[in-house]
């Protein structure tokens, strides 16, 4: 990689994107961006509130605008909301401006990670591994189209996942020049 491009972390909610991105920031010195957190900050309301008040399509539009902003910049770690890959334009933009890393896990692992949270509007009333698995299966074709690399996170520490990403992308740590 000659030009410093973004790293986009995609995957189903609760797979560990936000935690892995924090470790990547520490290891590379790159700026970390969490699309969900940017939306919450800009709208001054939680994601469940946005879904309830404005609907999912409005939320997806916000995601797309944020992605467009960060795609213009380089050397960012962008932790993407779980559904950002549903739009073809988002998938194309990520591939054009960076490397897309799909973090994946089993429905049971994801359930264990999200079961105590109240900020997952798409799982309201359906907080169970079977429903999570069904949603994951529906999104899988989109993840497949978007990803450049896939890393399974089951039974791996987030820091180890971050090291694996750095190794696979041949990025120097602490913000030094890239190799390869």
Automatic annotation (TrEMBL):
Pfam families with a match to the protein in the record: SKI
Cofactors that this protein relies on: Mg(2+)
GO molecular function: shikimate kinase activity
Keyword Cell wall biogenesis/degradation among record annotations: no
Catalysed transformations (reactions): shikimate + ATP = 3-phosphoshikimate + ADP + H(+)
Annotated cofactor note: Binds 1 Mg(2+) ion per subunit.
Binding of substrate, residues: 36, 60, 82, 139
Subcellular localization, as worded in the UniProt entry: Cytoplasm
Keyword field contains Transport: no
Residues binding Mg(2+): 18
Pathway noted in the entry: Metabolic intermediate biosynthesis; chorismate biosynthesis; chorismate from D-erythrose 4-phosphate and phosphoenolpyruvate: step 5/7
Key words of the record: Amino-acid biosynthesis, Aromatic amino acid biosynthesis, ATP-binding, Cytoplasm, Kinase, Magnesium, Metal-binding, Nucleotide-binding, Transferase
CDD domains: SK
Residues noted as binding ATP in the record, renumbered to the chain: 14-19, 120
Family statement drawn from the similarity comment of this UniProt entry: Belongs to the shikimate kinase family.
Quaternary data: Monomer.
Role of this protein: Catalyzes the specific phosphorylation of the 3-hydroxyl group of shikimic acid using ATP as a cosubstrate.
Protein name according to UniProt: Shikimate kinase
Organism annotation: Maccoyibacter intestinihominis
Gene behind this protein: aroK
